[in-house]
Amino acid sequence: GLRRLEPWDQHVPEVIALGLAAGLFYLVAVHLVLRPKLSDQRAALFLILAAAVVFRLTLVGTAPTLSDDLYRHQWEGRIQVAGWNPYLVAPADPRLAPLRDGNFARIPGQQVPAAYPPLAELYFYALALVDGGETSFKWAALALDLATLVIVVLLLYARREPRERVLLYAWCPLVVMEFAGNGHYDALVLTALLLANWLIIRGQKAASMLALAGASLGKWFPGLALPVFGVRAGWRGAAVFLGAGAVLTWPYLEAGWRLVSGLEAYAEQWRNNESLFALLSWATQRDDVAAGLALGAVVGLMLHAARTGTEPLRACYWLVGAILLLAPSVFPWYVTWLVPFLCFFPNTAGLLFSVTVLLSYHVIIGYRALGVWHYEPWLVALEYLPVYALLLWRIVKRQGARPCPTQSLP
Description:
By secondary structure, the chain is an all-alpha fold. The longest helix has 25 residues, at 134-158. The chain has helices at residues 12-33, 41-59, 69-81, 118-130, 134-158, 167-170, 173-181, 186-201, 205-216, 226-249, 261-269, 276-284, 287-307, 312-326, 339-342, 348-356, 363-370, 377-401.
């Protein structure tokens, strides 16, 4: 059905409806696979993986119209091939006019230089060297998505958990739409972050820190898990992390502090589909204070996880969950960061969020028609209220299940 609705940005209500319908089938499948052990686990795993590949191949040929990010990725790869540092020039720079193509108008943030970390830029550069077309970016995202799926299976095996739980990632409609459909490179980050977790479980500390450095320089957020991994990897692991970071950053070192100027502009100018951040901003009346409180809460959570010896996989689950609840921008593809961790820590609220977040695509209707980027409050409420209701119910239920302490006689 989604394949027949191309281009998706001209059929947004129908795309959302089909995505939600697919989400219902997905949640039923999740319920079935989380029940007691299946009679034939090997056959079940084969079916899950085969269907996952079919789902992705169905959408890999679609145009990435629900998001313009891929066009930015193509642009930054193209200008690097031409010899430009993406951290020093913005797309609107007149010196880059000869490099513009028919998709230039779709590039977001044309006044802002690159906001992506160095490994992401190297990824864009490598694909631009191949051919730089949509097809190469889409197939690369698909390959990394499948690599993530394989690592989830390896992690389930290493943790001696039912491997058919990979369905929670493999059949998630959001994951299929964002990677095979929209070509987001977040699959690169997930592959590296989950690889870091698998390697640390196997005791390969240096390799794990190398993978964590790659994840952190694909998107910035995995770097917040460094204290948790560092406790297990020691100072040698920290040295590997820093060394890998230096090597990956070296090609762009000319930019100096401008390596993060695009990220700073993004943090200051963009607010999209937020939840708890809106409450923090309302309470403090200042976005910068709200951002500081949110970041402090996430850092504090990671330091607590490191101090208490929390396993890295669980800490990464906490990290992603906290970011999604507290971030000033929550695009649908950000929620794909959470989905693989649900294979190990199934959470009804998280699973539901991976479905309801598709409602946030309603913003494209007004944007494509009128150039207005506006979220309807009632749709945002419909997206988040069931998720928070389930989170609160889980907390209340857990508190109610705790045994009362025995009172001693006077």
